[in-house]
Automatic annotation (TrEMBL):
Coiled coil: none annotated. The keyword Repressor applies. It comes from the Bacteria. Residues 1-70 form the HTH merR-type domain. It comes from Kribbella jiaozuonensis. The keyword DNA-binding applies. Gene3D superfamilies: 1.10.1660.10. GO terms for molecular function: DNA binding; DNA-binding transcription factor activity. PANTHER family: MERR-FAMILY TRANSCRIPTIONAL REGULATOR, REDOX-CYCLING DRUG-SENSING TRANSCRIPTIONAL ACTIVATOR SOXR. This is MerR family transcriptional regulator. Pfam families: MerR_1.
Length: 255
């Protein structure tokens, strides 16, 4: 028979923790013996080990009490095991990224996205446009990892179409145009027409919260009166067409 101090030492917890488990109804509190001490049996050690293992796994104390029944313990342990597996996977991924950061390798985007960005210059895009794309893809992959792959594949595929690629290039070079240049109006009309032909009125990723991409877009607009005018024309025409209003991964709501 063990005292509360011996029980706590054997299991690796404090006596205060044991008393908390008593108060929560997780561990039965034995009666005092003739000497005034509470004495714990081997069964108490087994129960305390079980409670500690569940608590270490992140199971709330209220939930541990519910698991005292063997009817629910098995399925619950399977779910706890699955949750731990998922948590370990996330921690290993975090560890991998930290090691990359420590080694000076701070790549955030997947290899296929990096390859895509590396090939944009050969297609005629400016470094300014490529930097914009990189920033926005970082945002999309960080905030919507479940949708980022689909959105990226859609944009990458659109660049294989010569007509769509010409629209991207024209939007890139609109940076240097005067905001009153009539070619901006024509370009906006072409972009909106291509968007509606490709997607109807709801583009892929319509459920993505546009707040952060919109912030980036506003920053880009501030750098170029031409881009600001083009963005305004596109938004106006898309709204008139009933287009689902979301910012796209290339930063100007056309694809």
């Amino acid at each position: 028979m063990l005292t509360i101090g011996q029980l706590a030492r054997y299991v690796g917890v404090s006596t205060k923790t044991v008393r908390v488990y008593h108060a929560k109804g997780l561990l039965p509190e034995p009666e005092r013996d003739s000497s005034g001490y509470r004495r714990y049996s081997a069964q108490a050690v087994v129960e305390l080990v079980r409670i500690r293992m569940l608590a270490d796994a992140g199971v709330p104390l209220a939930r541990i009490r519910e698991l005292s029944s063997t009817d629910v313990l098995g399925p619950a342990l399977e779910q706890i095991d699955a949750d731990l597996t998922a948590r370990i996977k996330r921690l290993r991924e975090t560890q991998r990224r930290l090691r990359m950061l420590a080694a000076g390798d701070i790549r955030i985007l997947p290899a296929n996205v990096e390859a895509h960005l590396a090939g944009l210059a050969a297609l005629g895009f400016t470094q300014r446009w490529i930097a914009m794309e990189r920033d926005l893809w970082i945002i999309v992959y960080a905030t919507h990892p479940d949708l980022a792959g689909t959105l990226f594949e859609d944009q990458a595929q659109s660049l294989t179409d010569p007509e769509l690629r010409s629209l991207y290039l024209a939007a890139d070079h609109a940076h240097d145009l005067d905001p009153d240049d009539p070619s901006l109006t024509e370009l906006a009309d072409r972009i909106v027409a291509a968007s509606i032909e490709r997607y109807g009125t709801e583009p892929p990723g319509a459920s993505v919260d546009p707040a952060i991409p919109d912030l980036l877009q506003s920053t880009l607009n501030a750098s170029s009166p031409g881009w600001q005018r083009l963005d305004s024309l596109i938004r106006s025409r898309l709204a008139d067409a009933g287009f689902t209003f979301r910012t796209s991964p290339d930063g100007d709501e056309r694809e």
